[in-house]
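Hi R.,

Here's the chain you asked about this morning:
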Amino acid sequence: MSSVIKTHQRTGEELIQSLKGKRLIVYAGTLESYQGIDILIRAFKFVIEAEPDTFLLIVGGTPEQVQCYADLAEECGIQDDCLFTGRVAQPLAKLYVDQASVQISSRVSGTNTPLKVYEQLARGVPIVATNIYSHTQVLSEEVAFLVEPEPGDMANGILRALQSETESQRRAANAQKLYEEKYSRNVYKEKMKKLLELVS
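And here is the predicted structure, written out as tokens:
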């Protein structure tokens, strides 16, 4: 049974229950080519060999994109260890991401920081992200595991996040602190208040 068909049979809490006991590696977002999903899938082949209790959950994407990457997962032999939800409503996406043991941002190009990076900072879960400008404007090795955009290094980053519990917790706590100090809603409101005071 393909990973695409399985997606349509289980959703929400039922899906989460079916994955109980697994450590979830979660990507949530679009599946455009610049998001590096092919690199993530190829990396996970190495992760599952080292840590058999892990599972790759990819949230988002059109049916055509999902099928393309599901085919790649099958080609890599990890079709039973990953699942594609396709596009889902925001509350459902949040439910899935909240189960993550590791959050992924595998983007391979771009200059603007993805909005999801700010959400990842706030979540208090280890982040593995590619070491490119759109990430390093916000992320550093103090708050995330930065990796080169290629399967071997991404696999190593995910494994470090899984296996180095103390370091993972430290970086996740730093990430939350960074979010609260620089990017939270309260900080934004304070900046807007000061800006309005300057122009009034």
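One quick note: The chain has a mean pLDDT of 91.

Cheers,
M.
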